[in-house]
Design a protein that fits this description.
This protein is α+β, with helices and mostly antiparallel strands. Helices cover 24% and strands 32% of the residues. The model has no long low-confidence stretch (mean pLDDT 89).
Length: 111
């Protein structure tokens, strides 16, 4: 992980077609520079992998498997510029976020 942390990138994705017929592709995601040696299941990575594999496989609906030690599957649906993801998730943080609206934002909302 140390050599990956030396790279000036947020993370590194590794992917391949799957030898298991229940999955279209497999992947792993490493981000030690951001404090995460290996992310167990990465939604943002699948948003990139979906269009990539859609073109390679000629499919818009696929199932990916992230082969981390915990592992997890993600259903991917590529619809033009948008990628839908579905699967099981673990809540790690819950709360509310609020911010004061700027005058410009208030003007836009008032239209």
């Amino acid at each position: 992980f140390r050599r990956l942390a030396d790279q000036e990138v947020r993370g590194v994705m590794v992917t391949s077609t799957s030898s298991d017929p229940q999955f279209d592709f497999v992947s792993r995601f490493f981000a030690p520079r951001c404090g995460v040696d290996e992310d167990p299941v990465t939604g943002s990575a699948h948003c990139c992998l979906g269009p990539y594999w859609s073109k390679k496989l000629g499919k818009t609906e696929m199932v990916g498997f992230q082969a981390s030690p915990r592992g997890g599957q993600v259903r991917v649906d590529v619809q033009g510029e948008r990628v839908g993801l579905a699967g099981r998730a673990i809540t790690i943080l819950q709360g509310n976020l609020s911010a004061e609206a700027t005058a410009g934002a208030r003007a836009l909302l008032a239209r």
